[in-house]
Amino acid sequence: MAAGSVITLLAGCASLTGGSDAEDEPIIVGTTSAPSALDPAGAWDGSWELFRNVYQTLLHFPSSSGTPAPDAAKSCAFTDNSSQVYRCELKEGLKFSSGRPLDAEAVKYSIERTIDIAAPLGPAQLLESLDRVETSGDRTVVFHLKKSNATFPLILATPAASLVDPEVYPADKLRESEKVTASGPYELKSYRRDKEAVLVRNTDYQGSAELKNDAVTIRYFQDSDRMMQALEKEEVDLTFRGLTPDHISAVREGDFGNKDVSLHDVVGTEIRYLVFNPGLGAAGDAAVRQAIAQLVDRKALVREVHQRTVEPLYSMVPGGITGHTSAFFDEYGEPNQKKAEELLSAAGVSTPVELTFSYTTERYGSATKAEFEEIQSQLNSTGLFSIEIEHKPTWDEFQSGVKEGEYEVFGRGWFPDFPDADNFIGPFVGGENAVGVPYEDAELTEELLPESRRQSDRAAAGSVLKEAQRILAEDARLIPLWQGRVYIAAHDEIAGIEWTIDSSTIMRVWELHRKASW
């Protein structure tokens, strides 16, 4: 991932021992993305930012690469020609922070419990291609897949495949504790929900990460302005996720209150999109969805709300990912009211169409409010729609509404599980998916996605996934809005920022250090 001269979002803190007292102080990172759970079987969201740093996986994404490499594993490979049998050999002497061994049985247990628990907001769906797990001795694990799936190694590199201690993580339910028993780079020394996570170096860690600090403190903010005030007052050393366009512009243009803070950015694959619930009212009418897709002015959204800190997005697969197309632009072109009128008229839809759009600013940042107000204005100004918008103040409330199917249309964000076009399509379709609204389409789930997963050459899979993107645009059950960059605002003494973001845009806090101490 290429690093630029601008930086704004980051959540972590670190210090190296030795040197002055200031150098020994942990780096404190602010973020608006607090974990929703501490058990990796229960969260498929921004919680992964913490999971990546405290839990270990068999594989990981090395710097600037989307190809998985060994972490807890010594080696891994498919042993057949159809990408259905995947074998891993563990490193010797692995153990959890409890002192108990991390062996093949623990790996098998960790993966199977995530699938068996199938938590409503958990990542079990990512592992749905798995048929069974076998072990041989203490260090050999063999994964048998139901169907060919060349993306399986990438899945094993995500926190969905986090390894946990079987003695303290129940097989049939989520662990209800504010403790983590794992084998990652850091131990979770203390945790206060929605407030703070204190990480300290795991001295027994055996993996790929080379820690450049001994401790990290992550502070969670519900308000972006409060987070930036903490940065200005040097209460935090850097910020990750949650900066508004105003914050980004202020630091970039030298208008921020603390002149020792710099902005950096890296290419990102975060996307924001609208989800339509076809089981509720007008959202179930394809012509209504297509008319909205015809009217949304992404360029105005990027310009007026986000001050060009993001890019317009015309596919669920963002630019920079192999296989990306501009499917929505190909289908609908520039915003056009006449074409939208024709779509509604041909379908016999009476206007104005009434719909409610729901959103939350928690985790997504306060700019989300202005974003939905802009979309509301764009649609209502045509006279074809009468859009109401509603804000859900907390993430739990918003997620509860999604789970219960309460929203006609709502906004979601997506940070990829792994850098592959499949991961911007597969998680959103099927009877149970990451967006919480069923999307049944046999061509997508039974033909195109399985065909793409038989391709070990992921570039070759791109042509198949292009057709999947065309179908998504035609259905318009999901409407992409914009693609982001990863911004990090940091005090100038903080180094290692350019290496913190892996190819799945998750931050690795072990790369951070103070310049004087490295």
From TrEMBL:
GO MF, one example: peptide transmembrane transporter activity
Subcellular location: Cell envelope
GO terms for biological process, alphabetical: peptide transport
Record keywords, A-Z: Signal, Transport
Record-annotated Solute-binding protein family domain positions: 68-433
Entries under SUPFAM superfamilies matching the protein: Periplasmic binding protein-like II (SSF53850)
A GO term from the CC aspect: periplasmic space
Gene3D superfamilies: Dipeptide-binding Protein, Domain 3, Periplasmic binding protein-like II
InterPro entries for this protein: Peptide/Ni-bd (IPR030678), SBP_5 (IPR039424), SBP_5_dom (IPR000914)
Alphabetized PANTHER family for the sequence: PERIPLASMIC BINDING COMPONENT OF ABC TRANSPORTER (PTHR30290), PERIPLASMIC OLIGOPEPTIDE-BINDING PROTEIN-RELATED (PTHR30290:SF10)
Family, per entry: Belongs to the bacterial solute-binding protein 5 family.
Protein name: Peptide-binding protein
